[in-house]
Each structure stands twice: as C-alpha cells, then as structure tokens.
Design a protein that fits this description.
Elements: H1 3-29, H2 37-40, E1 45-48, H3 68-76, H4 78-85, E2 90-93, E3 98-104, E4 107-113, H5 124-127, H6 132-138, H7 141-175, H8 182-220, E5 227-230, H9 232-257, H10 264-267, H11 269-275, E6 279-281, E7 324-326
Antiparallel strand pairs: 1-2, 1-5, 2-3, 3-4, 6-7
Helix pairs in contact: 1-7, 1-9, 7-8, 8-9
Length: 329
Amino acid sequence: MGKAGRFACIFTPMGLTIASLICLIIVGMGGTNRKDDNLNNLYFFRANTTDIRVNATDLTDLNIPHNALTDAIIQQSTNVAKNALDIKDFYHVSLWNYCAGDFDNDKDKVTYCSKHTSKFWFNPVEVWGLNNTVTEHVFSKELRDGLKVYKEVAKWMFVAYVIALVSTIVEIGVGIFALFSRWGSLATTIVSSVSSVFLIAFALTSTILYSTLMGSFNTALKKYNIHGSLGHNMYVVVWLAVLFSFAAGVFWLFSSCCCSGRSNRIKYGDRAARKGTNYERVDSPQGGRGYGPVNFQSGPGFQAPHHGVPLNNVGHKETAYEPYRRADV
C-alpha cells in the first residue's frame, strides 16, 4: 500500500473526527441566539409553565394579603399570578444559559436569553424570583436537595464537555501527522481515546442528570401544573458526536496497525530483481544443448578431442561464447 492508500486509510477517521467536532460545536451553540429558531430548539431540559395553577390554599404561609378579592383573582386568573412573578410560558435549559418565552399561535417565541456563563445550572428559585418562604412552600425537600445535587453535577458536565471539545480539536491536529507514519496514528489514537472518554461521560451525565430533573419536576410540581421534558434534538446531536468519536477511534487504531504507506515496489523489489537475473542454458555453436559432461583423462599419449572443430575458429567469433545467458535477454 502506497501513499495514496495511506491517505485513503486516514481520510475515514479524520472525517469522523471532524463530524464529531461539528456536533460538539452545535451543542454549544444551543440557546446562543434567541432569533434563530433552530438554535432555540437545542436544549437539554424544558420547563413548561403555560398552564401553571396557583390556588389560594397554596399561599396560606406566604406574605400575601389574604381576602376574598385576592382569593378570587388567584383562583380565576392564572395569568395574574404569572404576571406577578413574571413567569413565562416555557424555559429552555442549554449548556451555557437558559432561554424563556411564550407561545404564539402554538409556536415557541423566545423573548429572553440569559447571558452565557461557564458551569451553568438552571436555578428556578432565582429565575422565578421566589423568596425563601415561597421556595420552602412550593418546592418539597426532595426537590430542593435534588437541585443542590444538580448544581454540582452540572459543573462536572460542563468540564467534561470542554475537555471533549479541546481534545477533539487536538485530535484533528495530531491526525495530520498520521498521514506520514503509523506512529502518528498511534499518537492520534491516544488523543482520540481521551476525547471519546470525556465525550461519553458528558453524554451520559447530561442524559441521566436532566432525566432525573424532569422526574423531580413532574412529581414535586405536578399540583402546580408545571411539567418538565427533555430536548430531543439536543440529545440526538450529543449521541451522534459520541458515535462519530468512537468510530474515529477504532479507525485510528486500525491505521496504526495497518496502512503503513510503504510501497509494494520496495517490499518486493529485490525479489523482482532476482527474477530478472536468472540464467538459462543455451545451445552451443557446435549444436546440441550446451556442453555435455566432459570426462577428463590424463596419461601418456592422451589427446583431448576437438569434436571436429578447429580451435582457431573460435577466435573468429565477434563475441565470446557464453554457455548461459540471462533469461530477460
């Protein structure tokens, strides 16, 4: 396999690595532009507060005037309560931030996106403007404890994403050297392994984390008609990145064991040269297939046979006689 074969062998894992990098970039772009509907549909978790319901009996412990008028308003108009707390119809949680908006003719209309922060986690207490008293009343102890765990795990998830992204970029750079030798493929395989490990960790963490958060929301906030759901598009892109990265690692490993890039001409050149210098027996000038066996005799009066050919005739040949000749002549 020559250089062309080596290039073809490296092209496959390089293409898969680039595809994995593109997926990671798309994951990071989710929620970065509220005017782009495609990016707004890239989120890990969605809190739907469209049909939020607040009853007067739920506000017994709150510092809100409690009389017949306020009870009637709260019971008959959910929008009044939502406007008082500035609660939107939905909240999308992405990698760097969250976006919120309202439904407009059954379509999502994002009206606000928070600024991007590293190690981001969605804090409903802060986002919805709840004080400690409201939090203790609305959120169960299990949900509050779950939010604390979610905060810490979300930090690790972000770190895993950054390492996976950086190592994938490095993998592409090192992969260029794999074109020239299998040592380059081996180095790229090592970097690819690091990328795949952290990418798988990121994918598993995000899937398990937000699945757990969704269950907690749907259980603890069910009586308020707040529902949680996962973003299908985001997880498709995340797991595609994992698939591409893993496949690239397999092909990088294959290229380090095979696809040497050495030409077959070099490998079998000596053998071909040897075949081209074989000699074969040729007919002698006197007829017959070369010289037969010669029985040398010695003793007084012995005279070597001339076979009827004068010895001086041999000298009249333009070239010396060779009993063997090259087979390629």
